[in-house]
Amino acid sequence: MKIGIASDHAGFSYKEALRAWLQALGHEVIDFGCYSDASTDYPQWIRPCAEAVARGAVERGIVLGGSGNGEAIVANRIKGCRCGYCFNEETAFLTRAHNDANCIAIGQRLVSLEMAKRIVELFLATPFEGGRHIPRIAAIDP
Predict the structure, then answer these.
(1) Which sequence positions are flagged as catalytic?
(2) pTM for the full model?
């Protein structure tokens, strides 16, 4: 799968770890930055990743920050990017199965790296259920 990934400084170490792990699993990972743990403004890095998701340049996106909240907000400002805020396995499953999310946000300060990997695994493996959720998804961006 072709996956976009981006972070600010507070999500940088998880971005690096997840990027390497996903590549080792055989995924193509496009890194939209940031490229160090020096303080930076998250919209600069998150927006290009979300735009790539929305235009189909990548199949899925993963955005990371300290809490993940700001990153989710930025990603969801891009029409066609549906970013779910995930902090455990259930949120990762539901954001795919019910919301057809094509991007997730994770907070490095709030979950362990092991949990972040489980979240990503579920995000990548869970199919959209369709059915009753289709009109709900259609109503997001009429």
Answers:
(1) 71, 98
(2) 0.97
